[in-house]
Write a structure and sequence with these properties.
The protein is mostly helical. 69% of the residues lie in helices and 5% in strands. Strands 1-2 form a two-stranded antiparallel ribbon.
């Protein structure tokens, strides 16, 4: 209650939160706007007949836009895929490496190239989807496309333009939320899409218990298990490894050293690895849905979210992105050099290169623990679902994204409150003038 009271007194923070909520409302409205020329009932029946699987996973990340085939049917996944491509290329392409070293100006150029790549991916995926819709029908035999020509333009061209424009609008919406709102805009869009399915999942869960399809004891066990998983995720996301740091005391009245610590998170990458891994696996698996070939059919079956091959590759990608993203956001050599310049040191470790090696060794061990944690949370619910025939409405990846983004949002709110409090204290402080005598 005290936090809510502090937020209500901070008009700037209130405006940021309201702006974020308004942008998310715009996104949710757009999810219900159908693409032109489609038979809405036939499309809904078709996706319901597909069950969970790949379409269910993709539909979860798009917030239900795929099953309605709305203007946001592609969601932000093309943008995430493009971001992955350019983050990987920054380590191997000299031009992008140079742009990265230029700081903010170079990052703006990389972001612009990422947008161009997003448009290209949207054109490819949009054409594949439109071509597939053009030749598909619902389980009852009704065509998915009502009109093959819209305003004198071929349906496929209109669909490609619509889906590309929808993703570009979401990309712009996310950037606006990041700049003028609270939290990372793209993550908030994914969060809103997953959270939108919670009410329907809760209703379906209750119907299964009330109709006798699920025993009340099993339902209670599932609920308690989900609460336990959420608590475990929160614990792991805020867990720190504190490396002790000693720095010289600058107060002449004291001869002791100041003690502090260098905090290292167990999961530096947060929810980035599962999002990136899901995006990479969804792109080729989605493309196989729209072409008829025997080897593509085998690839499609192998890349189902419940398949063993999918889970093995998913775990490998999660581990890779845990280490890759940690290398990007945390540089042990730079941290060791800054400590050396400040005169600080790790007790028992020589300053400089030895400190960097020690921090790198600790960070690698933490990253291994974080990768195991992420893999377990994302994969174990699916294995449990298959072995015990339990109905999971939210997979581990979805639950991890929900909790991770919510924690990041709350941390940014707290940081904003602290910075505002500090600014108010500085405004009230009086600085005494000193007369300099020569």
């Amino acid at each position: 209650m005290s936090t809510l009271e502090n937020i209500s007194k901070n008009q700037k923070l209130v405006n940021k939160i309201l702006f974020t909520l308004a942008m998310l409302a715009v996104y949710r409205i757009g999810v219900h706007i159908p693409a032109p020329g489609l038979n809405g009932d036939a499309v809904a029946a078709f996706f319901q007949g597909q069950g969970g699987g790949l379409f269910g996973l993709f539909n979860t990340f798009t917030g239900g836009a795929l099953e309605r085939f709305s203007v946001f049917a592609l969601g932000v996944m093309p943008y995430i895929s493009a971001s992955i491509i350019f983050q990987l290329m920054q380590s191997g392409v000299p031009y992008l490496e140079q742009l990265k070293k230029e700081g903010q100006s170079g990052q703006k150029k990389i972001n612009q190239y990422t947008r161009y790549a997003t448009v290209l991916l949207c054109l490819v995926q949009g054409y594949a989807m439109s071509n597939w819709l053009f030749s598909s029908a619902s389980p009852s035999g009704d065509p998915l496309v009502l009109s093959k020509v819209i305003g004198g333009i071929d349906f496929r061209i209109v669909t490609v333009i619509t889906l590309t424009a929808g993703t570009c609008f979401l990309m712009w919406l996310g950037e606006q939320m990041t700049e003028h709102g609270i939290g990372n805009g793209i993550s908030m869009i994914i969060f809103a899409g997953i959270a939108a399915s919670i009410p329907s999942g809760a209703v379906s869960f209750w119907k299964q218990i009330s109709s006798g399809e699920m025993q009340p004891a099993m339902g209670l066990g599932l609920l308690l298990g989900m609460i336990a998983v959420v608590g475990f995720i929160i614990f792991m996301e805020v867990a720190l490894r504190k490396i002790p740091i000693q720095s010289p005391q600058k107060d002449a009245r004291s001869m002791q050293n100041q003690g502090g610590f260098l905090p290292l998170k167990i999961n530096f990458a947060n929810v980035i690895p599962p999002i990136f891994a899901s995006s990479i696996l969804m792109f080729p698996a989605t493309m196989t849905q729209f072409f008829d070939a025997s080897w593509l059919k085998f690839l499609q079956d192998s890349f189902m979210p419940t398949g063993a091959l999918y889970q093995i590759i998913f775990i490998g990608l999660v581990v890779f992105f845990c280490f890759f993203y940690t290398e990007i956001v945390f540089n042990p050599d730079e941290v060791a050099e800054n400590l050396k310049k400040q005169g600080s040191f790790v007790p028992g470790i020589r300053a400089g290169k030895s400190t960097a090696e020690y921090i790198k060794r600790v960070l690698d061990r933490l990253t291994v623990a974080g990768a195991i944690y992420l893999s377990a949370v994302c994969v174990l619910p699916i294995i449990l679902m298959q072995s015990m025939k339990l109905p999971f409405f939210f997979g581990g990846t979805s639950l991890l994204i929900l909790v991770g983004v919510a924690l990041d949002f709350l941390q940014q709110v707290q940081s904003h409150l602290l910075s505002t409090k500090y600014e108010n204290m500085m405004k009230g402080a009086r600085i005494k003038r000193r007369r300099v005598q020569y």
